[in-house]
Predict the 3D structure of the following.
Amino acid sequence: MLGRIRQHSALKWLYPGMHIKRWLALLMLGVVLMSLGIAYVLREAYLTYTLPGEFYYITLQFIPHWGRGAIFMCIALLTVALSVYKLNQSLLWAIVRPQPSDGPMVQAIYNRRILSRGPKVVAIGGGTGLSNLLRGLKDYTSNLTAIVTVADDGGSTGRLRREFGIVAPGDIRQCIAALAEEEPLMSRLFQYRFREGTGLEGHSFGNLFLVAMTEVSGNFEGAILEASRVLNVRGAILPSTLENVTLSARTLEDEYVYGEHNITEQGGAIQELFLNPPNVEAHPDAVHAILDADVIVIGPGSLYTSVMPNLLVPGIRKALETTTAQTVFVCNVATQHGETDGFTVSDHLRAIETNVGAGLINTVLANNNIAPELPEAWHSTPVAVRRPDAATYSNVRIVECDLVAEENRYRHDPAKLAATIMRLYDGKQSPNGRSPGQANESTVLVSR
């Protein structure tokens, strides 16, 4: 019984950090002072004037003084509580707008207070992998910064880049949809693609929205800020650079491929990845976010075309070398045809160190819920941990746990992934890699 009372949502108004108790106390003090003033006036009226006989019953004089006091105090408490609750509900509804999953208004406010005190998390990547990660992390903190690649040049994004000369909007669009408060509706709207119409066919609504907002606000950076404000985005979304870059690669056959879309389509093994021009300026806010972060998450996503293009920006790479935050690389759960065919976890690490440099990553998250095989049409295989030689990496911890989405074993489960990252940040991951409720986790410490 007492447990149910303690769990009642109304008591959340009194939880630490809600900034409610002090104002309730001040309100009660005001009510008490007002009551004392009214009592003095009534006492003077009783002594000065002779009231009609009906007031004997109206003022409950047939009840002892202590009884009358108790009745009036109970009625006062109920009316004050109800009025404060309804007043706050009316005033806060327009600001808080609780979602169906939030429950009562107090739960929505409590969630926001707690999320605002969450860790500063920077997520680096692009594509569907980054948006899935953000969907999971936004349930733990609102101090989120997504640093997004701008090298995409295929489909609707590529057409808009060529026609308007703007930074690639596609991956940023997905992040906005993932972090918007009205996420299910915004996701469907922003991802909607026109199936017909001269000039519209193939374009997504979200890309066109960002292009239009760029024209209205004057620049692409302002477009992201205004779109985030209009859609009530939880967190910040930043491009890794505001310059127009082209992702380029050199294959094992010594052929050069230019453009993110062509790199994916060419299907050959990549030996070297680089940006044109190479010395682009990093977004200053992205650099500041990395240096100020509590935890940095790199990936998941297409290794060569979504994750590494961010790391190739010199300012981003330098900030990752300088930061003291825990840096976690989330390895993909399955290989990507045309980019990472046959790759293991160690192959992903080796590719990053070869193209970007060593020492940027201190923890790797890898999935250990391995499916026997994936559908042949996917042209993909599960990414497994192959115990690397002791001389391969220095001070890298590989944490294995169940991260895969059961309904789509090609992708991570947002809830599983975010929960694991938070356990790592909270220090609840024990030395042997096991944490409460995660009996199937294991950790491999890889050192030179």
